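User: Predict the structure for this protein chain, please.
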Amino acid sequence: MTDASRARNGGGIFSAFEWMVALRYLRARRADGFVSVIVLFSFLGIVLGVATLIVVMSVMNGFHRELMDKILGFNGHAFVQAAEPPFNDWPDVTKQLSSIPGVTLAVPMVESPAGVSSQYEQRGVFARGIREEDLKRLPGVAGNVRDGTFNGFDKAGGLAIGARLAEQLGVGVGDKVSLIIAKGAQTPFGVMPRIKAYPVVAIFSIGMSEFDSLFLYMPLAEAQAFFNRGNEVTVVEAFVKDPEKIDDLRTAVGKLITRPLMLQDWRERNKTFFDTLQVEKNILFIILMLIVVVAAFNIVSGLTMLVKDKTKDIAILRTMGATRGAVLRIFLIVGASIGVLGDLFGFVLGLALAKNLESIRTMLNQLMHLNLFPAEFYFLSRLPSIVEPGGVALVVGMAFALAILASIYPAWKAASLDPVEALRSE
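Assistant: Here is the predicted structure, written as structure tokens:
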């Protein structure tokens, strides 16, 4: 085995001879058909595991980002309420909040649940009274008007409603709907419900089905009158440049505003929701990683059977001068090749699917007349997908590491074969 030895000493961790033998073992032959099938399934398992992990993690990232952007853009980052009602001094509080560095917008609102009805349907909604100047600057709503306009919103005395709510009520811009609350005027017969008709002046669509079907906006002065609030507001919502630094706003509010206030931030309001998303992401990662683990076990079984099948060949190689290390490296190359190729194909397939997921969903819906990812169940009108390089690198690295680890035991068994005993048994 002098030629092989010279090739081995020629340089590199793996010699040309070791590569040649390993690649020959990877090639399918009729006599080794069963072994080749196991190797093929190991390869496919890694491909599917890596691709599935990339797609699922991208979708979870997209969910988190889209929901966070829409929830925070629609609801604000901090919510200031009066600790001692009435909240009549809201203009001063709004002005003071706006002067704090990092605050981009402070919006006084009257918020209240209500009912809304048309001649076709009735729905429960969350009504918000807001000034026209604030509505036009409100992130998540401004720039997402599907029909109508916010111009003249205060004077028009109408409602701006979400697109899904408009569909459910069967109304459009110019149509009238009735706003209803249970607590109206006091009469000798008790408290009577309050009902008033308003024209629809604008329809907005932010792309989050729950918000598009639940919220409506009305002029602040009209809301104060309709909900018996006098000159009060119920909350002042603050938007900041960096939501992650909301604690700085808390400190600044405590120093600047002496009026007793209650301040709640977006983390407190949405903590359970975002924590649940993170837990689901972690659990899915662990579950789907088991696909790659199963594929790694297939590599163990496939290489073990390959070693069993090539016992005579290994013995001949050893008697011709191949060292235990050379045999070990040959089978490590076989296992690593399955892992690298599986990783590569899974990486390409996963990225292709993750980048075109919404197009694939739309195509399947059209071809098979399905409704995959219905907006009323998943809150979003489209399937979000964001590929994070760090997450992809973690998946690819773990899959490759598992393939290498799975190759060590069969390679060690091959290197431990006694050539004399192996040839004698033949």
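Residues 85-259 form one domain.
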